[in-house]
Amino acid sequence: MLPEFKIAQLRHFVWVAELKGFHAAAEKAHRTQPAISLSIRDLENKLGESLFEKRNAKTAKTELTPFGQYFLPKAKELIEHHDRISQDMTLLAEHKTGHLRLASVPSIASQVLPELLLEFVNDTPELHISFFDDNSDAVYRMVENQQVDFGIAHLFHEQEHSDKTFIPIWEDQIGVVCPKDHPLAAHEELHWKELRKHRLIGNGTSRLLEDSEARPLLGHSQFYISNMISLIAMLEAGFGVTTLPRYAVPKESDTLCFIPLSTPVVTRRIGIVKLTNKSLTPPAQALVDFILARSNSGK
């Protein structure tokens, strides 16, 4: 049977060899000299060979046997390998290393996450992050296919996702987005029927109106634009108006305005989506905990 080494014994051996004495090694290990002697004896028994020459009473130095000289670099190699793995796993457990993958809807990705992620990675220079932004359906698919550790999205129909856990965090109201010089821009709030008089552009969030009295607007849209950058560009060009959640509207836009939809009042819940029966990696769990702590503190 092959010997099973204890890292502590290997350290004791290296210290005795390098410091040329059991007493010095005991001081370094914060152990008694008999304890170090017992540790070395046990290691020698496992190896079946002596590691140190018999001590000369006239000298305080401890010398390695030829076998001990051969074993010394091997012992150091084992210790270095152990310490490297131990450090890597400690850093991973403390979310300071590894690879974190997440996906988010564009509104949260652009308006909320930059500040949160900047603070989160501030003390984790070795942590790698892959970040994908897409609509809610795509985020859910990435979570299902385990392409990401978790997602941030809106939950449309909870009963269709029994294999996932949804933790609501943010909530925003649906409103109308149009150029600041548009006739609707003068309103403080709007009834859905007023939108019938204008060219309406549908988008990925339009389905939020499905279960409301504003459902007829879905068939009224003359155009559909899925990409948020293209949608904003068309709105700024005066191509029409659209409905969007508040978070999806660029902050402090010089060209666009947001008017809340008062009839009906439709809100969107956005939260963290993860597979129910699969544990998150330490970095992913740390980020989830960080986001929840910040949202609970009002940040």
Automatic annotation (TrEMBL):
Gene Ontology MF term list: DNA binding; DNA-binding transcription factor activity
Keywords tagged on the record: DNA-binding, Transcription, Transcription regulation
Transmembrane regions: none
Keyword DNA-binding tagged: yes
Entry GO terms, CC: cytosol
All copies of domain HTH lysR-type, residue ranges: 5-62
InterPro entries: HTH-type_LysR_regulators, LysR_HTH_N, LysR_subst-bd, WH-like_DNA-bd_sf, WH_DNA-bd_sf
Record-linked Gene3D superfamilies: Periplasmic binding protein-like II (3.40.190.10), Winged helix-like DNA-binding domain superfamily/Winged helix DNA-binding domain (1.10.10.10)
PROSITE patterns from the UniProt entry: HTH_LYSR
CDD domains the UniProt entry points to: PBP2_LTTR_like_4
Pfam families for the chain: HTH_1 (PF00126), LysR_substrate (PF03466)
Family: Belongs to the LysR transcriptional regulatory family.
The protein's name in its UniProt record: LysR family transcriptional regulator
Annotated source species: Amphritea japonica ATCC BAA-1530
